[in-house]
Amino acid sequence: VTVAAPVSKDYTDGELDASVRSVNTQPLNKRRSTMRVPSKAIIPPSCITALPRFPVIECRGNLLNEETSADEYFVLRSGELRRFQLMSFGTRKVLREGVYLFNGAALEKRGLKTITLNATLPRSVEYVLTAETEADFDRWWEAIEASIKTETRKTELLAEGLANGSYLHKYNYGNYKRKQVYVWLADEGRKLRWANKKGGSFSEVGFEEVLGVVYGPVTSTFLRSSYLEDPSFMCFSLILADRTVDLACIHEHELRIWVLGLQRAIVRANVPPPAGMLPAMSDAQFLWRKAILKLRQSAQREGVTLKTFITRRLTTVADQARRRSTMLLEPATDVLQLQIENDALRQALDEAEHQTAADASPTLAAVRSSPVLAGEDDESSEGASQLPPSTAGPQDIAIDPFLDDVAHMPPPTDAPELYETEPIHIPPGSVPTVQSLRSSVLRLRSDNRRVRSEMERNRDEVLNVLLPNLAGALEEQSALIAAKDDRIQAMMAERRDMLNQLLEAKGNIRLFARIRPLTADEARHEPKGRATTLVEDESRLSIYTDADTNVQSFDVDGVLGPADGQDVVFERCRGVVLSVLDGFNASVIAYGPTGTNKTETMMGTPDTPGLMSRSLAELFAVRDSRAAEGRVQITMAAIEVHNDDVHDLLRGDPRSKKLAVKEDSSVPGLTERTVNSGEEALAVLSEASAHRATLAKNMEEHSAKSNLIVTVRAKIAPAAEGAASSSGKLTMVQLAGSELVVRKAGVSAFRDVIQSLSKKEASVPYDKSKLTMLLKDTLGESAKCVILLHVSPSQAAVKDTITSLQFAATARRAELGAARKTLRK
Predict the structure, then answer these.
(1) DSSP codes of every residue in 714-748
(2) pLDDT at 546
(3) What is d(CA 628, CA 38) in angstroms, rounded to the nearest whole number?
(4) Around Cβ 197, how many Cβ atoms within 10 Å?
(5) Which of 50, 124, 464, 661 could cross-link with 253 by S-S, CB 3.0 to 4.6 Å?
(6) Measured between alpha carbons, how far is 703 from 687 in angstroms, rounded to an integer?
(7) Residue 345 burial class via C-beta count within 10 angstroms: exposed 0-12, middle 13-18, buried 19 and up
(8) Helices 283-301 & 306-357, crossing angle to 10 degrees?
(9) Longest dimension (CA), the chain
(10) Alpha helix (H) residue ranges in 759-797
């Protein structure tokens, strides 16, 4: 990181944006281990002090759980108590759940060996645990009590640090760009605030709105950023019901404080936790996740998967260890052999000494006075000359196995044969043999010292010569890999651009899959350890069927996950919506089974406007910005198609008249309102929604069985003299539920039209229903079309989900031809 010396000033957004633009050179999804910053950019000093080192409190063992009446295995570490069920006679342990002790955990004694523990995370739970002995009870009590105190103190320090605040990088939810902001906790830790500079005007979010903290660049804001300038392990997000707050730390030592501190502040502000609350992380889980993100970042830098990266690194380490062991194998073998020989010689020496000590007294005295056995190292040659003459040749000496006095006792008369003595002969040179053994030991010790010295020299050579050369070679290879990776990423980006241009030239229908959030009730019935819907990447998702454990993958033009808000959906459709102001016909169609949030996508709520409201507001904003280019007149109409009957939603009583549809998609007698501003357009949309409600006894059921169509016509008169006028039409459609049980004629006809377009049939059956006849001019030749395919993440709806995605594959093959303007005389 290249930085200037820190200065005590807050630089403006303009200066910051300039510095950010100058370093936008990093490809999408390429996580670098360092952040590239221009030399003129100033990295602010850290405002948060690192946490002190807390003692590691750990306790593990079996306890009797009163709830299950079973002996279970518990592990306490880093403020988390984990409960395991013993399987297969205690040889296997299966994790059942874990609770955290940092949020108001309470401990109580019950009897001499029973503990009552109340915890609130990740759910409210009461454990009544009985130890086998009083000593085990004391050990568990002290460990849990100390852990609660430590976690409470840690929580207080985290809150103090975050209340002071620090500078972080915030990624914009709308345009995915990064800027530096000052972030801090306010209102006694209940709100998160951020401002462009310390002390300036701020934005805030209350923790009662936040569902949790996600560590890592996993939200759509990070994934869709053109350039992720922060390392992936420095990124984290606050998850709200309709949006995310995406941040990245500048200083690594602040990361743990921000992630764990925010997590604990959110938990304390949401007691009891609401439905959909994300699980909290322990210290150990945070460190593990951080390590995985760093490894994945290194793997992405080399252009391989995490598994391949780890396998390569382990293989490299093993090869290095093998080469090093080969260099040191021969000296190590010599040392081992010397050790074995030394042990054998010492044993032989002890046996010889013991045997000699049992000889007759003259020989015993001579041997004991030998300088070799007296511990002298250099006198082996003189030892033989000091022996008495009697040892020079063989002699017959009577030996008793125990003591000399016993040898002179008279033998018992009842067993004389047991005590009869035999002569033992001492061979010539016995004592010199012992001396030679001692000399061999000394010689081997000298060889041992020599080998050790050689091993030290080999080690120094490895450390000082081989390793530096290897490090240099690795750096060169890393640079080559990084350069190749840059080239690959650039080529992939170019390929995507060309593919999009090709699809646009062919007029292909663009299809985006939107996955709604999983409800709490659905989550309880999901398969264990496997999600029904998994987003593999930006344009692929897989569906898991629990009944047959089958996994199917589907390709789309883009995946919008549960965390993607309404603004992200609109950004995907914005280009098609605005093309109406250039004289093109276009349509945006919401398709999917009942219960997949199509109404929320199209109509939205007062707090989170839907696609229709956003499109109308954007059309007028762009029209007003182009006022100098000419005049644009905009009109609106709203229609409901129910049981193939067409109702005018802008008429006083929609039931009063059923309308006909002509072959050119026109509707005689349809009310069309001229609107002059975004406010007027939203008022017309609100009126249509109110009239639609009057047609239904049960609005939710009625919405599932009827089709809503809102049309916007734009007549463009250019200011330039002689320029041709043009007109465009935008059709926004919320289709009825597509599930097999309640499929209506209109939806069925819509599927047939898409099937015909994908097969490039000469005759497309638009006349099968009034719905498809209304869509003919915006779903036909030379028009632009976006289909928002809505998907349920629930296993209960997996059949409908697969059917919808199979339809999506058909729709992506449909070609409408290159879009053309509609010119007016």
Answers:
(1) EEEEESSTTPPEEEEEEEEEEPPP-SSTT--HHHH
(2) 86
(3) 40
(4) 17
(5) 50
(6) 16
(7) middle
(8) 110
(9) 152
(10) 770-775
Torsion from C-alpha of 323, 326, 329, 330, nearest 10 degrees: -140
| Cβ partners under 8 Å of residue 18, min gap 6 | none
| Ramachandran angles phi, psi of 425, nearest 5° | -100, 130
Residue among 534, 541, 539 nearest 510 (CA): 539
Give the H/E segment covering residue 77.
Answer: strand 70-77
CA–CA distance, 669 with 401 (Å, rounded to integer): 133
From the list 287, 233, 242, 294, the residue with the least C-alpha distance to 260 is 287
pLDDT tens for 287-345 read 888 988 888 888 888 888 888 888 888 888 777 777 665 555 445 455 555 566 556 65
Q: Which residues lie below 8 Å from residue 815, measured CB to CB, with a gap of 6+?
A: 506, 507, 508, 757, 760
- Cβ neighbours, 10 Å, residue 524: 7
Q: What pTM, to 2 d.p., does this model score?
A: 0.45
Tell me the C-alpha to C-alpha distance, in Å, between residue 484 and each of 21, 472, 479, 488, 492.
Answer: 24, 19, 9, 6, 12
Summarised one tens digit per residue, pLDDT across range 567-607 is: 999 998 988 898 899 888 999 999 999 889 999 999 998 88
- Give the Å distances, CA to CA, from 295 to 230, 317, 321, 606: 15, 16, 22, 43
Q: Strands of 549-608 (E only): list them.
A: 550-555, 558-560, 585-591
Say if CB 346 and CB 441 are below 8 A apart.
Answer: yes
Q: Is 810 helix (H, G, I), strand (E, B) or coil?
A: helix
- Axis crossing angle, helix 134-164 with helix 255-269, rounded to the nearest 10: 100
pLDDT tens-digit series, residues 130-176: 998 989 999 999 999 998 888 888 888 888 888 889 999 998 876 77
Does the structure show a pLDDT above 70 at 793? yes
Give the Å distances, CA to CA, from 522 to 273, 526, 531. Answer: 18, 6, 11
* pLDDT band per the 50, 70, 90 thresholds, residue 504: low
Task: For residue 347, count other CB atoms closer than 10 A to its CB.
Answer: 10
Q: How far apart are CA 94 and CA 117, in angstroms?
A: 21
* Paired strand residues for 540: 537, 555
pLDDT confidence bin for 781, thresholds 50/70/90: confident
User: Of 482, 588, 693, which is closest to residue 27 (Cα–Cα)?
Assistant: 482
Query: Which residue in this structure is represented by tokens 């009985």?
Result: 130
Query: How far, in Å, CA of 308 to CA of 302, rounded?
Result: 10
Weakest-pLDDT range from 502-506, 554-558, 718-722: 502-506
What CA–CA distances, in Å, run from 527 to 54, 249, 275, 277, 532?
A: 39, 36, 19, 19, 7
- Residue 395 has a pLDDT of 36
**Among the listed residues 606, 513, 623, 529, the one whose alpha carbon sits nearest the alpha carbon of residue 568:** 513
Q: How many CB atoms lie within 10 A of CB 425?
A: 10
Among all chains, which residue has been given the structure tokens 């382990």?
Answer: 314
Q: Which of 748, 672, 675 minimizes the C-alpha distance to 711? A: 672
Q: Number of helices (H) and strands (E) in the chain: give both, helices first.
A: 20, 28
Say what the pLDDT of residue 278 is.
76
